[in-house]
Amino acid sequence: MNKSFTEIYFDWSQLDAAAFKQAFIDTMVMTIISMVLVAILGLGLGLLLYYLSKSNRKSAKLSYTLVSIVSNVFRSTPFIILIVLIIPLTRLLLGTFLGATAAIPALVLSAIPFYARLVEIAFREVDQGVIEAAESMGASQFQLIGKVLLPESKPALLSGLTVTTITMIGFTAMAGAIGAGGLGGLAYQDGFQRNRLTVTLFATVFLLLIVFLIQWLGDSAVKRSDKR
Amino acid sequence: MSLIRLNHVKKSFAGKEGQVDAVVDVNLAVEKGEIFGIVGYSGAGKSTLIRLLNGLETATAGEVLVGDQNVAQLKGKELRAYRKNAGMVFQHFNLLWSRTVEENILLPLEIAGYPAAERQKRAIELIQLVGLEGRENAYPSQLSGGQKQRVGIARAVANQPAILLCDEATSALDPQTTDEVLELLVDINRKLQLTIVLITHEMHVIRKICHKVAVMEKGRIVETGTVGEVFRNPQEEVTKRFVHQELLPEEYNETSQEYLIENYAQGDIIQLHFQGEQAKKPVISQAIKKYDIDINVLQGKLQQTQDGSFGTLVVQIVGNQNERAKAIEFFKEKGVGMEVLHHE
After folding, report:
1. Interchain pair A138, B87: CB under 8 A
2. CA-based, 20 to 30 A from B26: which of A3, A101, B178, B217?
3. Do the beta carbons of residue B243 and residue B57 sit within 8 Å?
4. What is the SS3 assignment for A17?
5. Residues B171-200 as b or e (16 or more Cβ within 10 Å = b)
């Protein structure tokens, strides 16, 4: 039996609104929770990298190299392998390795080093003169971070977070393929494996819409925050 | 006792090609309420020197005494507390682009931990002090260079410091704006009784606003004195170059000197240096009336400083040898500095 392209890709009977809704929610949950965790932890790690790279002490240089190596390992390990590799850890943390929340540890682990590197670059690009000016006013290290480093690097931090989040959406789709649910899971398990390509196509369209939305939100936040 | 005293201060950096001595055995005293200028070519060590005064650099050896504190030995909390007492103005302004004019001025007050109401009140006063009323909510990117530096100055004096350090504060500005900013500094010096230490490579800045000057070369202070003394009687080669840059007419150089001697062969050609009081007295017309000579002005430049006027005139004296000699003696008596360029 030969089906036409229209019949393959636009077979409305395959689409189940409830399944799509659940998948959409799962994807958003995975993305948003991971994004918040990555924003906080990545910022912390980025700050650490920034200070370690600035310091002239031998111990700092050594720590910087170590942290760099560890974060490069997590950043470079293919996500699909990482998620399988850390199943024991996920089980330990969440009691299961299936479902949307179970994808979060792997997502966070791979995205933190990525975002931390962008954060480090953002901090390095803050004008040294401005930092010197704040030091000349007697600013403490905390004041320097809170009043100078963060606000002066805000556009770069936001655009970095946007890029990271979009990468993570791609990863949620991969996680979906091995049981995390979401739009990726829908596309792969309900769509591809059961040969219902309309489901795959529309799950993809939804994913793209989310990506576009986040890109647009990110871009406008960057624009608003940049007074240069 | 002087407000700022530097005793045998030394600062070295470990560079890639061995040790670099940026500041070598500097001794300096700055009185309270003074505008003290340090002039030198780039690489002379003046940027490092001024940073020793607020602990942005730490002296390798020697004492950096400000009031009763040795800045070279302050650390952590004490150093941060001290810095609130020493404002700094930068060549490239170093304003936070993410903050408005008002918010930039509030920054040092926030750092010092003033209550919000007091900060706000102080910010309004400061905006008036530097003449930026109406621009409170502008971002630095919307300001001209001169306006940015006004914000820089307001910010630097926000915590009512005892000393103000200016790091080439006018070097990024055009001549007109430079003069406006310099006037603002003099104004603040008078109004707030603020001691100002500035570094510059422009003798113009020294002449315009400084009371005392130190000339720096290769990490050392080679000459120091009141602006009057140094302009009238520069000792070191580098100082002479700086003074000439400011006092001689733009077109003046060795070639033009030869040109004058060739073209005005008659009589004597002398260069007169006027300084302070003498510059106000009509010595030239007195000399013409007193002796049987003519005086022909060939070149000249007169300038006003905080310490009276200064200037150089190149003149030709024509007349019989006897009268000419008497006239020259007369100038000496009147305290006019002079150099005979050509003698018939």
Report:
1. no
2. B178
3. no
4. helix
5. eebeeebbbbbbebbeebbeebebbbbbbb
* Own/partner pairs, A149-153, CB within 8 angstroms, 24+ separation: A149/A47, A149/A123, A151/B96, A151/B98, A151/B99, A152/A126, A152/A127, A152/B96, A152/B97, A152/B98, A153/A119, A153/A122, A153/A123, A153/A125, A153/A126
Interface pTM (ipTM) of the complex?
0.86
CB B162 within 8 Å of CB B86: yes
List, in order, residues 6 or more apart from A14 with CB less than 8 Å away: A196, A198, A199
- Model confidence pLDDT, tens digit, residues B93-129: 999 999 999 999 999 999 999 999 999 999 999 999 9
Token pair, residue A103, equals 């994808």
Strands, DSSP E only, in chain B?
Answer: 4-15, 18-30, 35-39, 61-66, 69-70, 86-90, 163-167, 195-200, 212-217, 220-226, 268-275, 293-305, 308-319, 337-342
Q: Which of B341, B143, B138, B149 is nearest to B257 (CA)?
A: B341
Answer whether B141 sits within 8 Å of A132, measured CB to CB: no
Size of interface A-B (CB pairs under 8 A): 68
Contacts of B126 in chain A (CB under 8 A): none
> Given CA atoms B104, B105, B106, B111 in this order, what sign does their dihedral have?
positive
* Residue ranges of A 125-154 with Cβ closer than 8 A to chain B: 127, 129-130, 132-140, 143, 147-148, 151-152, 154
Residue ranges of domains in chain A, CATH in brackets: 18-225 (1.10.3720.10)
Q: Which residues of chain A have pLDDT under 70?
A: 1
Rounded CA-CA distance B139/B184 in Å is: 21
Residue B173 carries which DSSP code? Answer: S
**Which A-chain residues 13-72 have CB contacts (< 8 A) with chain B?**
none
What six digits make up the tokens of B67?
């009031």
Query: pTM for this one?
Result: 0.82
